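FAQ

Q: What does a record look like?
A: Structure on top, sequence underneath. For example:
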């Protein structure tokens, strides 16, 4: 009999035998754990690679069966479970397609893990600046003409690395044309589709980059499917990339002690999306629209819809997203992120009959807006005016050169024209503002100042509390 969730069922069968543990992990099926009881219950499924549970790095049984079902669901040549997040998928796809010194085209508003991969592999990136979208107030996609120009200027490009959808749920209609263009040059297209694992669920969602012809696609199953945090997918569908080479690097980069809880949640998430039908999508879209209409009745609240129906942007006129987020959290409502203009919310991929507390959340949002309107407004930055970036940019120094050159800390107000020596990353969404080897412009410094003024959080090697940043010494 064919199993619907092979790994989940294998774990249930194993745990049901009430086995005694003379193996890792050390919590011994949860028996010597001091975690809260609710957490301890999950530990009886936190197994290792035992007889009947397959081998993650050489799967032949339940894991192999589960990954084959994943491949079929997404119509890939080969699909993999990832237990180290989409980060490891981004690393593996770049290692599998590039070598040290290779030139690659990279969408500039990529996640930090992409830039870390570029540095680790030692490639020569050419950054392609995204278009600014006045509707969402965010950087979005790369224009097709920019890709054409870059390919003409750099004929030896080994890979093109894109991000779609953006964190904010925006997808470009040019994506297929860009992929097709790259393929005429025999260049593989690698797509960080972290926020698009649900796209195959229904025609109500945009098309996945995999269906549009991308060679490797990485998806964070935990972002919009019901998988545990860190649980992700990687798909290969290509005549330009060998799936076994991708597998080689995944075996090297992923943990040799994979979490079976994560693996089971991936098996379950795959089953969830593969059994999603149009009636489910109709139910979701109806609930979603009812909620949107109820929110639009709240004075001074703006609801911005984007390409991905699971994403919504909420704004309160005259207030920053950070102010709004703080007030929402006082009402026990936690959004995905805030920026200068708005907060981003991610809706659940509901099936028919699923309940979700939309009415209660609407009450809390209305209360938060009412309180916010009694507080002092903050001046909103004009990010669109600062976003006049050069479309095609080669960094001044390679990552390897940055590593070798002498560096210094200087006040960031004196950094115009200098070259960044470290990443500075507003987080979330995790898109670096400064990248090592990149020249610091007036526009970038203006963005930094505005983000600091409105309370944005930053990751990376910086001393922003002292108003200092790390640069290459002149």
């Amino acid at each position: 009999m064919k199993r619907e969730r092979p790994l989940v069922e294998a774990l249930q069968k194993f745990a049901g035998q009430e086995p005694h543990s003379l193996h890792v992990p050390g919590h011994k099926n949860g028996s010597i754990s001091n975690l809260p009881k609710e957490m301890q219950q999950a530990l009886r499924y936190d197994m290792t690679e035992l007889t009947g549970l397959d081998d993650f790095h050489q799967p032949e049984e339940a894991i192999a069966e589960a990954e084959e079902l994943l491949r079929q669901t997404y119509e890939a040549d080969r699909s993999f479970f990832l237990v180290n997040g989409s980060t490891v998928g981004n690393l593996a796809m770049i290692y599998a397609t590039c070598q040290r010194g290779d030139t690659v085209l990279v969408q500039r508003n990529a996640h930090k893990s992409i830039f870390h991969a570029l540095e680790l592999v030692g490639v020569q990136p050419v950054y392609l600046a995204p278009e600014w979208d006045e509707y969402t107030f965010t950087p979005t996609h790369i224009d097709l003409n920019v890709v054409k120009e870059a390919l003409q200027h750099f004929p030896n490009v080994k890979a093109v690395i894109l991000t779609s959808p953006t964190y904010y749920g925006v997808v470009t209609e040019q994506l297929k044309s860009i992929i097709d263009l790259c393929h005429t040059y025999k260049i593989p297209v690698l797509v960080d589709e972290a926020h698009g694992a649900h796209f195959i669920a229904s025609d109500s969602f945009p098309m996945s980059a995999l269906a549009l012809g991308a060679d490797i696609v990485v998806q964070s199953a935990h972002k919009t499917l019901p998988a545990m945090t860190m649980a992700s997918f990687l798909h290969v569908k290509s005549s330009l990339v060998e799936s076994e080479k991708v597998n080689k690097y995944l075996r090297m980069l992923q943990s040799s002690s994979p979490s079976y809880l994560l693996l089971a949640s991936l098996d379950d998430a795959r089953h969830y999306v593969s059994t999603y039908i149009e009636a489910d999508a109709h139910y979701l879209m109806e609930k979603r629209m009812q909620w949107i209409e109820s929110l639009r009745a709240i004075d001074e609240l703006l609801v911005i819809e984007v390409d991905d129906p699971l994403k919504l942007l909420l704004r309160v006129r005259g207030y920053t997203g950070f102010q709004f987020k703080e007030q929402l959290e006082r009402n026990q409502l936690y959004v995905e992120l805030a920026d200068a203009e708005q907060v981003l919310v991610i809706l659940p991929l509901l099936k028919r009959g699923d309940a979700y507390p939309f009415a209660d959340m609407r009450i809390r949002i209305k209360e938060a807006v009412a309180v916010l309107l009694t507080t002092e407004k903050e001046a909103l930055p004009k990010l669109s005016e600062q976003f006049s970036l050069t479309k095609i940019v080669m960094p001044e120094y390679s990552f390897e050169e940055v590593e070798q050159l002498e560096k210094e800390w200087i006040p960031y107000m004196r950094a115009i024209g200098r070259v960044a020596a470290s990443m500075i990353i507003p987080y979330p969404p995790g898109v670096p503002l400064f990248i090592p080897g990149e020249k610091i412009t007036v526009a970038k410094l203006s963005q930094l100042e505005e983000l600091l003024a409105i309370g944005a959080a930053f990751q990376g090697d910086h001393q922003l509390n002292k108003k200092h940043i790390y640069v290459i010494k002149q």
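Q: Is there anything notable about this one?
A: Residues 278-296 form the longest helix (19 residues).
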